Amino acid sequence: MGLLDKQIDSGGVVITTAENVLNWARLSSMWPMGFGLACCAIEMMATMASNYDLDRFGIIPRPSPRQSDVMIVAGTVTFKMAERVKRLYQQMPEPRYVLSMGSCSNSGGPYWQHGYHVVKSVSRIIPVDVYVPGCPPRPEALIGGLMLLQEKIRKEKFGVKHEAV
Amino acid sequence: MPSFDETLSRLQTELAGRILKTDLHRGETTLFLDKKDLVSVCQTLKSGYGFNFLADVLGTDRFTDDDRYEVVYHLRNFSESGFLRLVVRVDEADLTVDSVCGVWKTANWEEREVFDMYGIRFNNHPDLRRMYMPQDFAYHPLRKEFPLIGIEGSIPLPAKE
Ligand code: SF4
């Protein structure tokens, strides 16, 4: 937004498209839902805390799905939890995004072969925008994933429903 | 203050009639009990020997023909820093044990876990529901014959959004 700053400095008039402004507003305040499922959630909390400070990106955890834009699926999705995850997703207002954090929610992770209770990838129940690999991913990786999501939002077209896998 | 060793030897002589076998391994004492004596022994241990804390209840599947399952109780005596383990064996023909919830309330969830994982029922338990698995789940996952990868379709997955 270098252009924007310059324009504001010299006269206070900005000309842009509505699409740009909306996307810029959305990607600058991606509020994730404050919930975690397993060990990855610890790393997510560390990312939100002062050392890595997600507030810098306008990412502030919200206590309710109704106020959230992003769902960070941080941890093992068990079959028992699967229904709850889906319901939480349905309670989020659109546009909504999903970031799958860690091997467990990407693919079942350590429970891929021997886990009678684990869903082998959260994408079997809800659409996912960004996958972050790792067990657990470091905070840098999570931040990288969130920035990738920002780039995705930046390219969104007005009136076109966003696609996830 | 009497030392815990004295307490141990005192309880072993006083309860001798109700102890099937005693095992000492790396400084930890294990008492094997008949399951019909379990609750009365636990009451005596709590009131007379200072075992005021039930640290854990767990099950094991030994996969033997008789007395296939075990229920294990870990007790602590805080004032003398003592530890004691109780073991009762449960045969497949009669998968029930009396609940010790009346002695230590903390047994409530622990026994529910054992019930969930092994299918051992606890008599007189106030609320014997599954602890981890969905209520309508039909199996007991820590039994040896249960496949590690699970049973296809035993837990329904919600349809994709
Ligand atoms: S991916 Fe690894 S760290 Fe993350 S929830 Fe699974 S086991 Fe835990």
- Identify the bound ligands: iron/sulfur cluster
Given the helix and strand composition of chain B, which structural class is it?
alpha/beta
E-strand count of chain A: 3
Largest interface: A-B, 17 and 18 residues
Stretches of chain B where pLDDT is under 50 for at least 5 consecutive residues are none
**Relative strand content of chain A:** 5-15%
**Overall mean confidence score, pLDDT of chain A:** 88
Spans of at least 5 consecutive residues with low confidence of chain A: none
**Total DSSP helices of chain B:** 3
What is the radius of gyration of chain A computed over CA atoms, rounded to a whole number of angstroms?
17 Å
Q: How would you sum up the global shape of chain A? A: elongated
| Helix-and-strand structural type of chain A | mainly alpha
- What is the count of DSSP helices of chain A, taking H or I runs of 4+ residues? 6
Question: Can you offer a commentary on this structure?
Answer:
The complex is a heterodimer of chains A (165) and B (161). Chain A is mostly helical and 165 residues long. Helix content of chain A is 38%, strand content 8%. Chain A has a 3-stranded parallel sheet. Chain B has helices at residues 4-14, 38-49, 107-118; strands at 19-25, 28-33, 53-61, 69-77, 82-90, 96-98, 121-123. In chain B, the strands form 2 sheets. Chain B has a 5-stranded mixed sheet. The termini of chain B are far apart. The complex binds iron/sulfur cluster. Iron/sulfur cluster binds at residues 38-40, 75-76, 102-104, 109-110, 135-136 of chain A.
